[in-house]
Amino acid sequence: MKNHITIIFIFLAVLSQAQDNNSITLGAHIPDQVEAIPDGAKRLLLNKLGEIITDNGISDNVKNSRFILTPNVSVLSKNITPTAPPKIALTLAVTLYVGDGIGGNLFESQTLNVKGVGTNELKAYTNAIKNIKTRNPLIKSLITNSKSEILEYYEKHCNEVSSKAASLEAQGKTGEALFTITNIPVSTSCFKKNDQKIKSLYTKAINEECKRNLNTAKAIWSANQNLEAANKAGFLLSEIDPNSSCFSEVKELYNKIANRVRAISDRGWEIQLKELDLEKDAIDAAREIGVSYGNNQAQNVTYNTRGWH
C-alpha cells in the first residue's frame, strides 16, 4: 500500500513539474554590449540559447518575453597552433544570465569555459559555441532555479499583469493582451484568477482574425479569380480557427474558390481549412496564439540588463 502511495505522489510531482515547464516562457536575447564576436557566431549563439531553453523543460523561446536568457562572452585565451596550416585556438568564458529583462532584476548566472579551434576566427568561435552542452549540470541548475523566480514573480505581481492585459484589451490590442496574460504559468494562483479571462480573450482574438482574414480573402478573390488569387485567398482562409464565429462564411467562400480552381486547373487544390481539434482546450489554443503573436512581432522591447555583466 505504501508503495502505491509513493508512486502516486511521484506521479503528481512529475505532473506538477510538467505543468510548470509547459507554461513558463523565456526569451533568448543577445545584448549589444556582448563582446564583438563574428556575426555568424552570434547567430549560432542565439540558436544555442534557444536550445538551452527548450532542452531544459521550458516550453517556449519567445521573442519579446519579459524573462530572458542572455549571454556575455569574453576571450580567455587566443593562440595560433603550430600546425600546417596554422589554426586559431580560442578559450571562451560564456556567462549565462536569466532574469527579468523589463524590471532589470537578475535571477541566476553561471559561467562555462569552452574551447574551439578553426582555420579562421569565425570557425574557432563557431566550434567553441558548439561545445556548449545544453544539458550541462550548471545550465540545468541555472534554468531550474530561474523557474522558481519566474513563478514567484507572477504570484507577487498578478494584479499588475491582469491590469496590463485589461488595458491592452481596452486599447483594441487583443493579441498583445493575450500574449501578456497567457505567459502566466498554469501552476500559479494567478493563472486560476485569470483562466476565464484567457478564454474570453482567445474567443475575441479568433473572431477578430476570422473577420480580418475573411474580408481580405473576399477582396483578393473579387479582384481577380485566377489561380494566384485563389492561393492567396485560400492561404488566409486556411489560417482561420474553426471555433471562430464567422467560420461558416469561411467555408462558403472556400468552397466557391475550390470549385473555381477545379474548373480552371487540372490539378487538385492543396490548400485545406483547419479542422476542429476536439482534444485541444481553449487555454492551450490561447497560449499558442499568444506565443505566435510574440514571435511575429519585431524585437521591440528594450531590456534593462545593467549590472548583470
Overall geometric form = flat
- Profile the largest sheet: 5 strands, mixed
CATH topology of the largest domain: Double Stranded RNA Binding Domain
Structural class: alpha/beta
Residue ranges: pLDDT <50 for 5 or more in a row? 1-22
Annotated CATH architecture of the largest domain: 2-Layer Sandwich
Mean pLDDT: 88
- Counting structural domains, the number is 2
**String of helices and strands:** HEHEEEEHHHHHHHH
Q: Which CATH class of the largest domain applies here? A: Alpha Beta
Provide structural commentary:
The chain is an alpha/beta fold and about 300 residues long. It folds into two domains: about 25-155, 2-Layer Sandwich (Double Stranded RNA Binding Domain); about 160-275, no CATH class. It is built from ten helices and five strands, in the order H-E-H-E-E-E-E-H-H-H-H-H-H-H-H. It has a five-stranded mixed sheet with strand order 2-1-3-4-5. Helix 2 runs parallel beside helix 3 (about 120-130) and helix 7 (about 190-225) packs across helix 10 (about 280-295). The termini are far apart.
